[in-house]
Amino acid sequence: MDNSICQVYEDEIQSLEEEIKLLAEKYEDSQQESTFFSDEEILMSIKSFQRESEGHESLSDLITQLESLETDLSFLKKFTGIQFTSHFKEIVEKTTNRTVRKHRLSGNCYSLSFQLEFQLLEMQNKENVSAVVTDLGIIMESGEDSDMSKFVSSTEEHGNLLRFFRSLSSYAEWYEHRRCTFLHFK
């Protein structure tokens, strides 16, 4: 091969390595930012929001609140890459202090699509409501990636939706980076 062609390829490889390094740093920064809030702080914010929203009765307040929620949803789609395309919910069982709801969600995270089906058991005592995910089933187009299949199986066993969405977001983001890199070399 001609030295000039080799140099062009080496320059391109160097450029891609620098881009990967920058993306890795950017990813680490975003991961650190997302861990600033504990689960308790998030729950307190949700409860505070629910108390505030109970007093809103006028149409203009509801429209303002809807616009704010749409803005928040748009931000979350950009931040996590997760976009839900459909949601189905039905009540399976309801008693005075216990409710079982069946949920079906589908969506995509970057270029990976997913479907979830689970039951949410909600139990209420005097002051608290606790919720437990049961019968979790996940369908993903993971292709031939055995690590992703193992992860999905483990998540189904433990019923940990938060872990699933956090991991899916990270995995799908890097999956997209790899896909774009490989397309670049084709």
From TrEMBL:
InterPro entries cross-referenced by the UniProt entry: CENP-P (IPR027801)
GO biological process: CENP-A containing chromatin assembly
UniProt keyword annotations, A-Z: Coiled coil
Record GO cellular component, one term: nucleus
Recorded coiled-coil stretches: 6-33
One Pfam short name: CENP-P
Name by which UniProt lists this protein: CENPP protein
